[in-house]
Amino acid sequence: MATSIISTIFGSKKEHKALERSVDSLKNIYTIIIALAIGNSINKLFSTNVTDYFSIDFANKLLVLLAFFVTVVPFFHGMNRHLDECYINKNAKAQGFLLFDFLVFCFEAIIFVAFANRYTNGLEGYYILALLLSIDAIWSVISHIIHYSIINTGTFKWVFINFFVLLIGCIMFWFKKGQNLIFLFSVLAIIRTVLDYIWCWKYYFPDK
Asked: From CA 108, how far away is CA 130, in angstroms rounded?
């Protein structure tokens, strides 16, 4: 009896360690893709002549890049928290969707890479970020159904935040017709991140 209990305890620990290694491996792949996006975006910004650093065009690129950075931080942070909450802490309902979550996260990271290669073309970077928010909102609904429907905190808040930002962005685009949109979209990206951290603070920074 004692031997059976001991083997069960140590067996469960080994399984948990194996799961941790799997999650860490997937996190590392995601981190590499995000790092590639960040590196490419910075390289692209400074690939122009030094004399262009004081131009309006360069300032606009900086604003788009600011929108990128304030978006990538909560996305990267949220990915890590989600994987820890669902698969390491095992607080969520379903344990068999790790590969699905990973594929979605990798696809979102690839979208960041696409942004890094295209954001200097006017509003194109914002279109890519809008696509990212749309995909993340869809994933958030699925993730809430799969993982978080029985616990207090979850990703469903991200649905409302992303939908709100997309709606405001569409209204801006419709009424402004290209006037100051780069600045306004950058401000909107900052507001999105501020709302994200305020509303989901306990999820990003749990008490224990």
From this structure: 12
